[in-house]
Amino acid sequence: MGCAEGGCGACTVMLSRLKGDHHYSVNACLAPLCSLHLVAVTTVEGIGSVAQTLHPVQERIAKAHGSQCGFCTPGIVMSMYALLRNKATPTMDDLDDAFQGNLCRCTGYRPILEGYRTFTKVGTPALTVVCCLLRQDGGCCGGGASGNGCCRTNGTATPLFDAKDFVPFDPTQEVIFPPELMVKTDRSQSLCFHGDRTVWLQPNSLEELLSLKWKHPEARVVVGNTEVGIEVKFKNMVYPVILSPAFIPELNTIKHTEQGIIFGASCSLSLMEAELRRAVDSLPLHQTQVFLAVLEQLRWFAGRQIRNVAAVGGNIMTASPISDLNPVFMAAGVKLTLMDKDGSRLVQMDSRFFTGYRRTALRPQEVLVSLEIPYSKKVRQTQFMSAFKQSPRREDDISIVTAAMSVTFSPDTSLVEELKLSYGGMAPTTVLAERTAKELIGRPWGEELLQAACSSLAEEMTLDPSAPGGMVTYRRTLTLSLFYKFYLTVLLKLRDQVWEVPQGQHLDDVVGRPIMHLSALKQATGEAVYCDDIPLYENELYLALVTSTKAHAHILSIDTSLAVSMPGVVCCLFSEDVPGSNSTGPIVYDESVLADGQVTCVGHIIGAVVADTQSHAQRAAKAVKIQYEELPTVVTIQEAIAAQSFYEPIRTLQKGDLEAGFEQADHILEGDMHMGGQEHFYLETNVTLAVPKEDGEMELFVSTQSASKTQSLVAKALGVASNRILVRVKRMGGGFGGKESRTTILSTVVAMAANKLKRPVRCMLDRDEDMLVTGGRHPFYAKYKVGFLDNGQVVALDVSYYSNTGNSMDLSLSVMERALFHMENSYSVANIRGRGFLCRTNLPSNTAFRGFGGPQGMIVAESWVTDVAQRLGRPAEEIRRLNLYKEGDRTPYNQVLDQFTLDRCWDECLRRSDYKQRRAAAHLYNRQNRWTKRGLAVVPTKFGISFTAVFLNQAGALVHIYTDGSVLVTHGGTEMGQGLHTKMVQVASRVLGVPISKIHISETSTNTVPNTSPTAASASSDLNGAAVHNACQVLVERLQPYRSANPKGCWEDWVKAAYFDRVNLSANGFYRTPDLGYDFNSNCGRVFDYYSYGVACSEVEVDCLTGAHKNLRTTVVMDVGHSLNPAIDIGQVEGAFMQGLGLFTLEELHYSPKGVLLTRGPGSYKIPAFGDIPSHLTVSLLRDAPNAKAIFNSKAVGEPPLFLASSVFFAIKDAVSAARSEVGLSGPFRLDSPASAERIRNACTDRFSQLICSVFSPSFTPGPSDHSGSFKLVLNCSVLTLTLVLVLS
């Protein structure tokens, strides 16, 4: 499950050791069973269950609405549980620390923290009351009513949850350490475990360890397995001998000396962190400068689960060039004790310790026994030290550049006596800038020293243009920027030395109330069953995919001889084994089930290996040898444009007279921008279990948003009718569009194997495999020309969009059409034209993703609006408000806007955010601060609701009433965490007039509701809700005579009476959205049923020296009509916003020039974490906004809020504008999405970036380890700075 590399935290469990009663969270995926001798393992199932008693940790995350898809929930529960076992009343800082290693893609994190805040000293959260979100009769006045008229003061407000209802937490009632493990606690016995390819040796003494290392000099020494585990899993490394010294006393001791603190090499980073923190609390500040620097790096070092097991010695010995800690150890002059069986020696970590990439000065037989971290100088205020880390995401991320700097002054002066500048990420090893340091000795700490240091560092810290990792200009600039931050820090210290629900609604009516997600409790206890949780069938087999390593090539030969001879292998499958049609695809059959003669992307599925176990199947799949003849490859949008590699048709959408509009304009501006793609990163990867039945039938358990499409494509591949294929979907661990069409590339292959072998076959993709083969959000490139008047009114727009479609059409045409339908976002433009080009490239086919082209279209609109404002020198918010649509306006596709609430959302957002005051405060801050700048942006969204493919706007439902009065509801939608089943139960409850406890939804299946549309387009609550309503209304009418005959009876009485009267208590429901249909040729018709509107105001703070930014504050106002379930809808708004935050500021897919995806897994691809939430996030649902076009006046909420996160992007751009103004730069400038630290830093032009002038040859082609698809050179002539821009397609 999860990622298998310790990056997502979904598999978190708690380990306990009897000694010291110590409990700690770990990633189960990295914890070898061999290492758990005499250790107690507690999983989420072990602390509570729905059937028996819930643990408070499980109860609170569920009832606080902190579980949506639920796949991450067990891991988060166990991180919290482990924290409570060690600290019964934690602080909020403890929570932040505990969750650094956990990711959630659904919730936006806020409800999780709010629920668990109740365990802390802070207590009940302040954000639980959202009365104005619940009342539909005018809502809350915000306290403005006179007297006792406000629900906030008169007690009628409805909370999302009430902490008083939670079971109290009693730490004395936790399970004890297992008595079975108390019987023998002596670890003096050596252990030896033999595997197929590896021997695990656990010596009991240092002497034995040294003897074994002498005997096996190439053996890997493993404590936490955080490095070797990754190498074995993803790099296919095999280590015949592994030595585990985790319990050798000498390697686990901590000793205080006069010089510092000695840590045994096996001490975990968490243990070192705790000891250093105790030292900092008890020792004078001037003695703990080194300790503080180490703690600063540990704060952002991986997650808590990794730090709990990773050994400090292992961190040193891996010799990573981007290590967080090694620069600190080098700058501090840490001393290492090395031993072999002949003796010991003391080595200082200096420029000679790292001898090359991943190599150290240790001899093969030597072992690192301990390290001594020194105190800083005992003479007061003579030594200062700081550590820095710059990474795409601050929490749990791999560094781009790390640095540690230490300066010692002659007593009572500011003259530099000793200086050490250590950098990671600037060479194959951690390096010291020795030449620069030497030049600065004896100089006073001042401006002249700064200038000399920066000039020297610019010359000394060089990188080859083809350096692995790319970002050469940014990394070189960082060396100067980080030194400047250190300079300012020290300078400051030196100076310090000298100086709501409708009234009257019945309590039993649950529509509009914050009902908990129906599966939340099961998800919190680990009892919720996902596809791969289904118990093994008898004779079940496992399938592993064989995929292409080339982006475009002919297949010359396939050699399976080695694979079929390996243990457990049953068979190999290739295109000739497809019994039906090998052609497949969600709309156009332009794909193959298995590649036949040619591959068109890296990750193209060529075949499969079926074996008795997962490990055997995967090992054999890697042994299949394929020879290729490579063909020309197109990877990026720019390459596709150059080669004119496009799919047909090229869509055009036009209204008005474009030529006349540009003639009318006072100003014409042209620009372009690129928006990168995005990985879905659902926590549950693609999985299928196929079970063959009699008469050619096949039952499939699939994690898919599209059961019917899976059914039809599997039937096509097997050559049978659809009525022989049953697809069942219980729940998904996230989808976000990624499981709408791409799941079938796995399901068809698994079904084919089960059909051939007549045995159940299962496959769940590993995280890296899933990311490689499935594709993601389409990268877009856009060029625009905009005409506008002196007052800022836009009168003409011509925009061309280019999407990186990939190697097949998939849903890309529909994605582009939606981008065109949103090309103006929320602005009225009289004369407008948009064109959409689908670029055919050799990447895995990109596909649906939350927003479905809308965000790509809208961010370009916000870009040209910002350009107009910057050209006119006016605030962007004024230009946005001036051009905003009004009631009755027509869109570019001639649809009239009615029930228009965007202007209300705008005004409400500005009011709630205190925009004017915050803007004034930001201006003041920017005048007072040179190297940090604050920016604000207010961004609207108008998102059309309906499938643009008209035939998909239909849904069915089936409702049964049983004789005991219980109700079973089935509908065509699938549950992926968005709470669809919960809302459908609420709808049925209101219509039938029965409590939700009597209603159950089991699963989605093709044999109950046929021909279902995908659960997508944010339309599922509307469509399926109306279908459920229809079915329930039919049953209500059938029961009405029995209600009338027995008005004092109960539900069960009426049901039984109808049954005995032979009335059908089962009903089908159906709904189709009326009056839809649009024609591109005539530009007429109705594209959408209605629109969801929203506005967000965000404020950020940018560090101009590094490009890092902080999300300070966001206010969101969203129109969701009359919410069916405010708790779920708020969760959807927050979750979409955080996913958008990743899209626009963090998440970046890197491909090699040969089309190889380099960012596969959480180690290299970063989604937002707990620490990325804006410090102040407020979500309000617009009141008095009924929507007559959807069920119970509600509105869609899944996709529309995502684009509001672009307010953070444009707030960053606003802050960068303030930074550029410091050097006299004004007017429009290009900032591509995502606004990574690299792009931000390069845009903040200053004297340090001017010192970095690396000249690259335009013909330069990056090496295979570069993280970019192509390079574009941009010369900023005004400051003579050459900027490297990554173009990711």
Automatic annotation (TrEMBL):
<feature type="binding site">
    <location>
        <position position="324"/>
    </location>
    <ligand>
        <name>FAD</name>
    </ligand>
</feature>
<dbReference type="GO" id="GO:0005777">
    <property type="term" value="C:peroxisome"/>
</dbReference>
<dbReference type="Pfam" id="PF00941">
    <property type="entry name" value="FAD_binding_5"/>
</dbReference>
<keyword id="KW-0520">NAD</keyword>
<feature type="binding site">
    <location>
        <position position="69"/>
    </location>
    <ligand>
        <name>[2Fe-2S] cluster 2</name>
    </ligand>
</feature>
<feature type="binding site">
    <location>
        <position position="8"/>
    </location>
    <ligand>
        <name>[2Fe-2S] cluster 1</name>
    </ligand>
</feature>
<dbReference type="InterPro" id="IPR012675">
    <property type="entry name" value="Beta-grasp_dom_sf"/>
</dbReference>
<dbReference type="GO" id="GO:0051537">
    <property type="term" value="F:2 iron, 2 sulfur cluster binding"/>
</dbReference>
<keyword id="KW-0285">Flavoprotein</keyword>
<dbReference type="InterPro" id="IPR008274">
    <property type="entry name" value="AldOxase/xan_DH_MoCoBD1"/>
</dbReference>
<keyword id="KW-0411">Iron-sulfur</keyword>
<feature type="binding site">
    <location>
        <position position="368"/>
    </location>
    <ligand>
        <name>FAD</name>
    </ligand>
</feature>
<feature type="binding site">
    <location>
        <position position="948"/>
    </location>
    <ligand>
        <name>substrate</name>
    </ligand>
</feature>
<dbReference type="Pfam" id="PF01315">
    <property type="entry name" value="Ald_Xan_dh_C"/>
</dbReference>
<dbReference type="InterPro" id="IPR000674">
    <property type="entry name" value="Ald_Oxase/Xan_DH_a/b"/>
</dbReference>
<feature type="binding site">
    <location>
        <position position="106"/>
    </location>
    <ligand>
        <name>[2Fe-2S] cluster 2</name>
    </ligand>
</feature>
<feature type="binding site">
    <location>
        <position position="818"/>
    </location>
    <ligand>
        <name>substrate</name>
    </ligand>
</feature>
<dbReference type="GO" id="GO:0004855">
    <property type="term" value="F:xanthine oxidase activity"/>
</dbReference>
<keyword id="KW-0479">Metal-binding</keyword>
<dbReference type="GO" id="GO:0004854">
    <property type="term" value="F:xanthine dehydrogenase activity"/>
</dbReference>
<feature type="binding site">
    <location>
        <position position="104"/>
    </location>
    <ligand>
        <name>[2Fe-2S] cluster 2</name>
    </ligand>
</feature>
<feature type="binding site">
    <location>
        <position position="736"/>
    </location>
    <ligand>
        <name>Mo-molybdopterin</name>
    </ligand>
</feature>
<keyword id="KW-0576">Peroxisome</keyword>
<feature type="binding site">
    <location>
        <position position="11"/>
    </location>
    <ligand>
        <name>[2Fe-2S] cluster 1</name>
    </ligand>
</feature>
<keyword id="KW-0408">Iron</keyword>
<dbReference type="InterPro" id="IPR036884">
    <property type="entry name" value="2Fe-2S-bd_dom_sf"/>
</dbReference>
<feature type="binding site">
    <location>
        <position position="301"/>
    </location>
    <ligand>
        <name>FAD</name>
    </ligand>
</feature>
<dbReference type="InterPro" id="IPR001041">
    <property type="entry name" value="2Fe-2S_ferredoxin-type"/>
</dbReference>
<dbReference type="InterPro" id="IPR016169">
    <property type="entry name" value="FAD-bd_PCMH_sub2"/>
</dbReference>
<dbReference type="InterPro" id="IPR037165">
    <property type="entry name" value="AldOxase/xan_DH_Mopterin-bd_sf"/>
</dbReference>
<feature type="binding site">
    <location>
        <position position="3"/>
    </location>
    <ligand>
        <name>[2Fe-2S] cluster 1</name>
    </ligand>
</feature>
<dbReference type="InterPro" id="IPR016208">
    <property type="entry name" value="Ald_Oxase/xanthine_DH-like"/>
</dbReference>
<keyword id="KW-0001">2Fe-2S</keyword>
<feature type="binding site">
    <location>
        <position position="740"/>
    </location>
    <ligand>
        <name>substrate</name>
    </ligand>
</feature>
<feature type="active site" description="Proton acceptor">
    <location>
        <position position="1199"/>
    </location>
</feature>
<dbReference type="InterPro" id="IPR036318">
    <property type="entry name" value="FAD-bd_PCMH-like_sf"/>
</dbReference>
<dbReference type="GO" id="GO:0005506">
    <property type="term" value="F:iron ion binding"/>
</dbReference>
<dbReference type="InterPro" id="IPR014307">
    <property type="entry name" value="Xanthine_DH_ssu"/>
</dbReference>
<dbReference type="GO" id="GO:0050660">
    <property type="term" value="F:flavin adenine dinucleotide binding"/>
</dbReference>
<keyword id="KW-0500">Molybdenum</keyword>
<dbReference type="InterPro" id="IPR036010">
    <property type="entry name" value="2Fe-2S_ferredoxin-like_sf"/>
</dbReference>
<feature type="binding site">
    <location>
        <position position="852"/>
    </location>
    <ligand>
        <name>substrate</name>
    </ligand>
</feature>
